[in-house]
Design a protein that fits this description.
Layout (H helix, E strand, L loop, with lengths): L10 E2 L7 E2 L5 E3 L5 E2 L2 E3 L5 H4 L9 H5 L1 E4 L11 E4 L4 E2 L12 E3 L5 E2 L12 E3 L5 E2 L12 E2 L6 E2 L12 E3 L5 E2 L12 E3 L5 E2 L10 E4 L5 E2 L3 E4 L15 H35 L1
Parallel strand pairs: 1-3, 2-4, 3-5, 6-7, 7-9, 8-10, 9-11, 10-12, 11-13, 12-14, 15-17, 16-18, 17-19, 19-21
Antiparallel strand pairs: 20-21
């Protein structure tokens, strides 16, 4: 009875239970004594196999719960990964409340309608490089969202990133207007890079800690925002599965190490040549 209405459970291991009978679609590890109405598997998936935040065709556990489509009719109730190759618009509430969804890869998406991904609390990565329009509350409540491609977005409506507690930085290359409450209650948000920004609603960053806006707007500082033209902030990313800042630092260190080695060899060569000349 403790499993009643636990639709989010997909795998379970109960080796000490003598007998198990389920009326649910749950996979059970085969070390149980007796099981009815359930699918037995040889091993449980590892945490690494389950926590995939981007597409991996080698991961069979991800493939079992992956929604791939060229249209978005008949969306499954529970999905962990979303790939839409030809869809150009996501309808209102289309994927709202998909609480197991981890990532979305949408290379052709242009428009996201209101509440399309409302309360997708596990989604961490949303990749849609052609995206231009994000409407009211499209990603509201996506508390785990850390990466979303918004470089080409030109229109964004109110409450789009409301309650996105894991967002730290976003970069808009073409956006000119930040509307009301677009980043409401984004407690971790630190920086927005928006060179073409012209209009900023006074309540765009309500209930946030101080946010820096890198833009060509007039520089200034208020309670919740600081506008600057040059001083971009660099910081360690939220732990997902890629670390751009760390890679950049390691690359710089390696370049410095190689330069030191070259200079050391050059110095030794110079000293040897100098000794020969003096002899």
């Amino acid at each position: 009875s403790f499993l009643q209405n636990k639709n989010e459970i997909k795998y379970i291991r109960l080796p000490l239970i003598p007998k198990l009978k389920l009326n649910m679609n749950i996979k059970v590890q085969s070390d149980i004594n007796e099981a009815q109405n359930c699918e037995l598997i040889d091993r449980m998936p590892t945490i690494e196999e389950l926590q995939q935040f981007k597409y991996n065709k080698q991961n069979k556990f991800q493939q079992q719960n992956l929604f791939k489509c060229s249209n978005i009719h008949n969306t499954p109730y529970q999905i962990r990964g979303l790939i839409m190759t030809k869809v150009k618009a996501v309808g209102s509430h289309q994927f709202s409340q998909q609480k197991l969804l981890l990532f979305a890869l949408c290379p052709s998406i242009l428009t996201i309608e209101p509440y399309a991904f409302l309360n997708c609390i596990s989604m961490r990565r949303f990749v849609a490089k052609k995206l231009t329009t994000i409407k009211d509350s499209a990603f509201s409540g996506c508390m785990s969202l850390t990466e979303i491609t918004v470089q080409n977005v030109t229109c964004i409506e109110r409450n789009v990133f409301q309650f996105c507690h894991s967002l730290i930085e976003l970069s808009f290359n073409n956006l000119e207007v930040l509307p009301e409450s677009v980043f409401d209650f984004c407690k971790a948000f630190k920086q927005i890079i928006c060179p073409k920004l012209k209009t900023l609603h006074e309540n765009a960053f309500t209930r946030c800690n101080q946010v820096q806006i890198t833009s060509h707007m007039q520089e200034g500082e208020e309670k919740e925002i600081m506008i600057t033209r040059k001083n971009r902030i660099f910081f360690q990313e939220v732990l997902v599965d890629e670390f751009h800042e760390r890679k950049r630092i390691l690359k710089s260190i390696n370049e410095q190490r190689q330069l030191i080695q070259i200079l050391t060899k050059s110095r030794k060569t110079y000293q040897e040549i100098r000794k020969r000349i003096l002899k």
